[in-house]
Amino acid sequence: MTLDLSTLVPTLVVGFALLTLQLWLAGRGALRRASAASLALCLGFVLFGLQAWLPGWLALLGGHWLLMAGLAGLSALLSRHLLNREPPAWHQGLLLAAALLVPAVLGASPPVRAGAISAAMGALLLPVTLASLRLGWRGEPSFRAVALGLLLASLALWLGASLALGGPAQAWQGCLFALAFLAVLVAGFAFVLAYFERMDSQMRKLASVDGLTGAMNHSTTVSLLAHALERGRREGQPVGFVMLDLDHFKRVNDRHGHAVGDQVLKAVAACARARLRGSDVLGRLGGEEFGLVLPATGEAGARHLAEQVRQAVEALELRGDGGQPLRVTLSAGVAEAARDDTPETLMHLADKALYQAKQRGRNRVVVADDWLRNSTLQSVVG
Predict the structure, then answer these.
(1) Are 16 and 42 in contact (CB under 8 A)?
(2) Distance between CA 95 and CA 308 in Å, rounded?
(3) What is the DSSP string of 344-355?
(4) DSSP character for 108?
(5) Do 38 and 71 form a contact (C-beta atoms < 8 A)?
(6) Phi, psi of 114 (to 5 degrees)
(7) Which of the residues are catalytic?
(8) Which among 217, 251, 243, 256 has a CA at the least distance from the CA of 358?
(9) Which of 129, 133, 200, 301 could lock 297 by a disulfide, CB 3.0 to 4.6 Å apart?
(10) Threshold 0.70, pTM exceeds
(11) Which ranges constitute the DSSP H helices of the chain?
(12) Per-position pLDDT tens, the chain of length 382
């Protein structure tokens, strides 16, 4: 493929050089690795621009190899971003096949060479383009620009390959080839934005989610409960709250160690989470204590859910230190919000019901009654 578009080639060199610099200065692991792929694309176009001073075969062979390496590196990076795993082994095989194709077609006529190399590069981009359209569209907003850029690049490469089969059309082929890499350049800059959007999202999540169990932390649970109460008052819907506490959890830590205790907490959180609706909230209030925020759920529904969670935890088959069977139970306090309840008063009421469950022998669910509510209000006021 001969590129004599004297204005577009320098533009691509400068564009990929700036992208390489931006990725390198970002100083992050994934972005730093991406700078190598961008640099390969930049150097590939540098070689095309030096065709007048280098042997033609060397500029074409080296330029196309560098472009293919850059596309493969970019595809691998985006695959890790989308799938959180390394690309499959066949990805390297596809790159090897594309690289071997280049010297095989260097001596062919320009249309055949252009068509074959465009098709090979389109094949390198196709898997990550499909993955970006399928998965990336639901991710960070900036990743949509990545997906559209890759789609445009793939379409341009495949269209260039099909035009080559129809006969000499060198001007169109060169323009389509340049257009494809301009689209790749746009996708690269968009990926930088998407990467930082993901980092920002993860930081916000870390600030609101308990790292061990995946439940909301205490402050976030209180905030979400306040929101549920406000919405319940506005829409005339009940709001239930359940406080869960593992029975004799200190014994588990003392006898089996904190590593086993952490596994127990994760298993209990999973039991509760599996029985919640999308609108419900699981929060870790501290230690072995959890809270369930249940919008549009009255006392009966909250009690039923708490009993389901209690039975599921009791049925857990866990292993302690040394592999011996370990059984755990939990107690639960259930409360339905009154119209003037605040998050603090509702949680305090559920805590009182939980205390009653502990007093009555543990491994049971207790619903706050009028007497508990009155005593709770008196203690709050006092």
Answers:
(1) yes
(2) 53
(3) HHHHHHHHHHHH
(4) S
(5) no
(6) -65, -45
(7) 288
(8) 243
(9) 301
(10) no
(11) 8-26, 29-49, 56-83, 89-105, 110-134, 143-165, 170-208, 218-235, 249-256, 258-273, 299-314, 343-359, 370-381
(12) 444 456 678 889 999 999 999 888 876 677 888 899 999 999 999 998 898 888 988 999 999 999 999 999 999 988 888 887 778 888 889 999 999 999 999 888 877 888 899 999 999 999 999 999 988 777 778 899 999 999 999 999 999 888 876 655 566 777 888 899 999 999 999 999 988 888 877 777 777 888 899 999 999 999 999 999 999 999 999 999 999 999 999 999 988 899 999 999 999 999 999 999 989 999 999 999 999 999 999 999 999 999 999 999 999 989 887 778 899 999 999 999 998 899 999 999 999 999 999 999 999 999 998 666 666 555 544 4
Output the DSSP codes for 305-331. Answer: HHHHHHHHHHT--EE-TTS-EE---EE
DSSP state of 216: B
What residues form DSSP beta bridges with 246? 330
Q: Does an H or E element contain 367, and which?
A: strand 365-367
Say how far apart CA 180 and CA 158 lie, in whole Å. Answer: 10
**Token pair for 302:** 């909250």
Three-state secondary structure call for residue 167 = coil
Q: Are 242 and 248 in contact (CB under 8 A)?
A: no
Residue type, 354: L
Q: In whole angstroms, give the CA distance from residue 110 to residue 179.
A: 19
CB 290 within 8 A of CB 284: yes
Place of tokens 């709770």: 376
Tell me the Cα Rg of the chain.
30
